[in-house]
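sorry to bug you again but im stuck and you know this stuff better than me. theres a chain ive been looking at and ive put its sequence and its fold in token form underneath. id like you to explain what the token line says about the fold, in plain words if possible. anything you notice is useful, everything is just below.
___
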Amino acid sequence: MSADMGVIICISIKTCAQIDTVGGYGTGVSGELQTGEGSAASAGSADEAGGVDAIDPGAGRASGENFPVALRMLPARYRKHLMAVYSFARTTDDIGDRAPPDRRLGLLGELEADVRRLYARDAGGGAVESAGDDGSAVGLEGPPRSRVVSALGPAVAECGIPMQPFLDLIQANRQDQVVTRYPTFEDLVGYCRLSANPVGRIVLYVFGSFSEDRAELSDSVCTALQLAEHWQDVAEDLRAGRIYLPVEDLDRYGCTEQDLAQASASAPVRALLTFEVARARGMLDAGAPLIGMLRGAARAAVAGYVAGGRAALAAIAAADYDVLRVTPLPSKRRTAGELALAYARGR
């Protein structure tokens, strides 16, 4: 592999530790590469601009993520498609987390309607209606109205990506508006099926490598990456009013929500995180043989995802599982080393 193989890493959409940016740029909502200097719009400006395009994921934000999205060594068509997917996923997530609370469901409804317009157009369909979040009919005639969805057009057309993964990502953010606690681990895994697994499936389609067997392994990797993000961000999520640690696990280890609000983790909280990290690592390792089923660019990209997850979990362990004092982030060197090993071993 090239020594300057930079990666922008992003599978769980929110997290990731970078190894390098792809030339220091990202993809804005217009779907075109741009520098971070042009990304002044904030999620809070949605009221003024009045639409999905007001939610700017920020071209430079991809470089602050954790898990590989676009490797510099990849052919340009792959980088373009992956960055368009990143921009959509990032925008969806920012609507759910950063838009004015009273506008989030409406904006997510606009985004879904636009995705349906994209697929209706590509299918050669005429005017269609879809129910909005308030139950009203939303017209789907014409091309997509937002730049972020329009930018998905080439990837959808060239790679045959189905619509459902994009709808699932939107639904995950709807769920975030109404669900703030998860009673069981299975409940949390169900959320990951919407919030993380669709991205991995989209990536397989981008590389022309999708099969049901590979998708099953990809789901295991993606769920593990989502869990790694949640375990890194326990304090940040609590400030947003959300706890992803399953209630059954909190109870088993004698932890309370008040314990999670402290400046540093108590012994019971560290014991709980030790358990959760081990479980996430097991899921990541279970899906890692996907790497060995792929070749070339696809193999490198998926090795990057697995490497990012392993490095993130190792960073939590290195912090003695105290995720409250500071967010544990992996070093570039550790992530690069994990990537090389995963690529060479095929798992």
User: Anything to note?
Assistant: The longest strand covers residues 129-131. The beta strands are 7-8, 26-27, 33-34, 70-71, 129-131, 137-139.
